[in-house]
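User: tokens in, sequence out, please.
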């Protein structure tokens, strides 16, 4: 199995271009199910998770062609409305086909995702929303089976802010009869990106990006072309890579306003940043001060950046408290960072990180995408070699990671 070997201690310098957002591309690809017309999707990153949703749509009967970063998706002749366990277990975002399938075909059979490395992650709120819209739901043999002649607009309030839950119900509501109001909706930029694509195709959606989204159902929507926005988590990760190595890194082709919470924490940690219209330069020449971080739904600090900022705090001056409020078990990187010499104590949802002068390279592995990213961040500054195993997690969310980091001057290689 492939692994990544990093020899730490190189100061990163230069420019890195950000790829299209994985978490936008996934619902946008799923939304092509809503129409019989072709969708031409640009800036779709080359990632394992994208291949997974592509395979899922193909096994339902969609025709998909990739040309570089452009994906042509035609869901005209979809034959099956089933998302099988084999695919859903490798990527729980496969559940994003549920809303579009029920909206267009009146039925769907989707494997329940089950637990994953970062928590139980149920989809009860997706299901409750579809029920409010008149769907009949049965859980059978590990699958959720949903049926509805035509979904009806409804007022739906989410108990917890859920990103894919908001996206699923927004897609379902696009073709429903009447008006749907989603209250306590997720405000993440990925929700807005999906809404913009749907609106371009003839959907009537207002309020995406706020906690109340109003969708007026229409009888059909078109296919169209769309460019996926840049990945804010990839951008944030490279900013942290620049910061931890005392580097000077420009992260280009990004949307800086999506990074406000991350930039504020980097600033509080004494790291200078320069923001332009589509890039951020990080200049870290004065060490790292400890700061406290609390993850929250957008516009709060993203849980998908928690592990990377923890690696940064592991070599800061002082004590920082990192609080995870979105997922109940998102500290699987902690034992691995400890093996590299980090001083981290866990107390419930808090990680208390006491900065150390140096980390030391070690063989490590993680069972989650962002946890793996934090080990890369730590490896860049650790003394000696860090060998990261199970890198298929990195391949799920970071396009050409070794190439991008090597260009910035990191000593990183992938070996089989
Ligand atoms: C999405 C992102 C993921 C990110 C997460 C939080 C995608 C493909 N993935 O995941 O990278 O870490 O948002 O920003 O976009 N919950 C329930 N019931 C539900 C749904 C969610 O209890 O029906 C809970 C979850 O267990 C979690 C919280 O709500 O504690 C937020 O999860 P959610 O926003 O749904 O995460 P995802 O959409 O799966």
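Assistant: Sequence out:
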């Amino acid at each position: 199995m492939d692994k990544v070997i990093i020899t730490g201690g190189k100061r990163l310098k230069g420019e890195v271009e950000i790829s299209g957002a994985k978490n936008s591309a996934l619902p946008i690809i799923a939304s092509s199910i809503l129409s019989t017309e072709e969708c031409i999707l640009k800036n779709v990153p080359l990632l394992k998770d994208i291949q997974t949703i592509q395979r899922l749509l193909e096994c339902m009967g969609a025709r998909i062609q990739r040309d570089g970063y452009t994906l042509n998706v035609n869901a005209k002749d979809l034959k099956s409305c089933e998302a099988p366990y084999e695919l859903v277990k490798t990527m729980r975002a496969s559940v994003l086909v549920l809303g579009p399938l029920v909206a267009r075909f009146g039925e769907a059979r989707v494997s329940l995702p089950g637990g994953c490395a970062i928590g139980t992650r149920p989809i009860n709120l997706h299901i409750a929303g579809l029920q409010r819209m008149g769907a009949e739901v049965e859980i059978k043999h590990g699958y959720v089976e949903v049926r509805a002649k035509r979904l009806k607009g409804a007022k739906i309030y989410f108990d917890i802010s859920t990103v894919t839950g908001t996206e699923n119900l927004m897609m379902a509501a696009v073709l429903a009869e009447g008006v749907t109001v989603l209250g306590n909706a997720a405000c993440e930029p990925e929700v807005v990106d999906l809404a913009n694509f749907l609106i371009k195709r003839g959907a009537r959606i207002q309020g995406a990006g706020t906690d109340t989204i109003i969708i007026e159902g229409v009888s059909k929507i078109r296919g169209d072309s769309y460019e996926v926005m840049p990945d804010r988590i990839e951008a944030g990760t490279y900013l942290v890579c620049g910061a931890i190595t005392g580097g000077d890194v420009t992260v280009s082709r990004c949307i800086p306003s999506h990074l406000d919470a991350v930039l504020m924490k980097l600033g509080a940690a004494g790291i200078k940043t320069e923001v332009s219209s589509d890039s951020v330069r990080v200049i870290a020449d004065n060490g790292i001060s400890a700061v406290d971080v609390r993850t929250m739904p957008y516009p709060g600090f993203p849980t998908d950046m928690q592990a990377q900022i923890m690696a940064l705090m592991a070599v800061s001056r002082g004590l920082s408290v990192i609080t995870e409020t979105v997922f109940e078990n998102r500290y699987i990187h902690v034992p691995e960072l400890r093996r590299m010499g980090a001083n981290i104590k866990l107390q419930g949802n808090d990680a208390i990180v006491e900065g150390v002068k140096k980390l030391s390279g070690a063989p490590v592995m993680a069972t989650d995408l962002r946890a793996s990213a934090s080990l890369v961040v730590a490896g860049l500054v650790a003394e000696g070699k860090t060998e990261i195993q199970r890198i298929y997690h990195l391949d799920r969310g970071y396009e050409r990671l070794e190439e991008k980091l090597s260009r910035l001057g990191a000593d990183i290689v992938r070996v089989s």
